[in-house]
Amino acid sequence: MEMFHVMNETDIILKDIVRHDIGTHECQAFIRAGPRRFLHFDPNNVRAAIVTCGGLCPGLNNVIRELTNTLYFTYGVKTVYGIKGGYKGFSAEPVELTPDSVNLIHHTGGTVLGSSRGSFNKEAILKFINERKVNQIYLIGGDGTHKGILELSNECLRLELNVSIVGIPKTIDNDLNHIDRSFGFETAVEAAQAAIVSAKVEATCNQPNGIGIVKLMGRSTGFIAAFATMSSGDVDLCLIPEVPIELEGTYGCLPHLKKRIKEKGHAVVVVAEGAGEELLGQTNEKDASGNPVLPPIGIYMKDKIVEYFAKENIPTTVKYIDPSYMIRSVPANSADSRYCMQLGQYAVHGAMAGYTGFSIGLCNN
């Protein structure tokens, strides 16, 4: 199969393009994604499966659509299964994906395949592979999903199965090393602006001394909260997991809010869901993906703000907004749509070239 431009097997992308020590002669690199001159798989014999796992994220339908279209139109593959409901769907009847069935799905949020956390069952997946004669599996998911990808790809290699297991990394929090950004992140930052604007309106209109609080997603990193804050220009206080929260004292956030209230007559606060672990501690409870269930930092901060200003004898009206699931269920914006197109196409190129146990992403663009 001829391509207009193909990657050489020696093409690489350097992990670090900024060098701090000119005496260091070693560096790490990644294999460059893209079409290859020679294919490992005969497209006529390819039977592929696509599955979405974990929480929702803008762009999931875009990735499903681009995987399907690239398999069909670029390589001529005619059998693409959609696995319903995450890993557990390998034990159920799949749906067939075609260019017609995925034609308009990128205009809606969520995933047409459904999703779920956990439920990785290696034996059930191997049974599906053998019964359906599937030789390419594309898994869209986060940390837990990729643990399954590694285990499954290693098992296929051990059993000498000619199967390519491919990961497309998904995390709305953008908390991935090595890649420039995760898909859906820019859409989430954009969608968060509506909540911040609402908080601003509530804060300015509820007099005297209105305070609007917005809680955003960000389990272990505060990228959404920080980027939404910088994009907005209306936020007076941003709390993220990377920076411990000090309530009072010289660097306390509560005295800072008091100062902003005196200066402006109102204030807007953005807090990431994973912030304040040093105040609330960790719970022993975990979700189906094995992630710790986070304590309610947003409500905690609201209560502390109300308590502080009451103690200071300053009347306030505090409004709390939690748009967490709203910002992850919207359709992808144009930037993320284009990124998802690239991820889907390059994932298929890698699988057709015979790579397995790999994940695709933008690095040092």
What does this entry look like structurally?
Helix 3 links the parallel strand 6 (136-141) and strand 7 (164-169). By secondary structure, the protein is α/β, with parallel strands linked by helices. The mean pLDDT is 90. 35% of the residues lie in helices and 15% in strands. The chain is built from 10 helices and 12 strands. Helix 4 (185-205) crosses helix 5. The chain is elongated.
Mean pLDDT over the residues? 90
| Strand segment count | 12
Strand order of the largest sheet: 5-4-3-6-7-12
Percentage of residues in DSSP E strands: 15-25%
Distance between the termini: 27 Å
Offer a few descriptive terms.
single chain; 365 residues; alpha/beta; 6-stranded mixed sheet; 4-stranded parallel sheet; 10 helices; 12 strands; 15% strand; elongated
Sum this structure up briefly.
With 365 residues, the protein is of the alpha/beta class. It has helices at residues 60-74, 122-132, 143-158, 185-205, 223-232, 253-264, 277-280, 297-311, 324-328, 334-352; strands at 12-14, 29-31, 47-52, 79-83, 95-96, 136-141, 164-169, 210-216, 237-239, 266-272, 317-321, 358-359.
Write the layout of secondary structure elements.
Layout: E1 12-14, E2 29-31, E3 47-52, H1 60-74, E4 79-83, E5 95-96, H2 122-132, E6 136-141, H3 143-158, E7 164-169, H4 185-205, E8 210-216, H5 223-232, E9 237-239, H6 253-264, E10 266-272, H7 277-280, H8 297-311, E11 317-321, H9 324-328, H10 334-352, E12 358-359
Parallel strand pairs: 3-4, 3-6, 6-7, 7-12, 8-10, 8-11, 9-10
Antiparallel strand pairs: 1-2, 4-5
